[in-house]
Design brief:
Elements (H helix, E strand, L loop, with lengths): L1 E5 L2 E5 L1 H33 L13 H14 L33
Antiparallel strand pairs: 1-2
């Protein structure tokens, strides 16, 4: 464990996970930079002139790389077909109960 004091609070960080996270970040940004430079060079050769185009979308890949696992971890597993414990038991009301309509439609 690595102990760091920031803004008066003591944080405990798992050293091996911290090093893996730094290595992953460096690798992702390095690969993104290499991909962008190669896409930019190819696009200039293809076009015959320098311009801004779709190759700049490659710069957004790190944001996608880090947001997808976060979203996957947030999702809960879907309930099975026979499991009714997590299903809402409410029925939508299409009319106000004081109107007294039994079919839920207006005449």
């Amino acid at each position: 464990m690595l102990h760091i004091k920031i803004f008066g609070k003591r944080l405990s960080i798992n050293k091996s996970r911290f090093i893996k996270a730094i290595i992953e970040t460096v690798v992702v940004f390095t690969l993104t930079a290499l991909l962008f430079l190669s896409c930019k060079a190819y696009a200039e050769i293809e076009r015959g002139y320098s311009a801004f185009g779709g190759e700049y979308l490659a710069l957004g890949l790190p944001f996608i790389w880090y947001s997808i696992p976060h979203e996957i971890k947030k999702k809960e597993p879907a309930p099975s077909a026979n499991d009714t414990s997590s299903v809402e038991k409410t029925v939508p009301t299409y009319y106000h109960e004081s109107e007294g309509l039994s079919s839920g439609t207006h005449a």
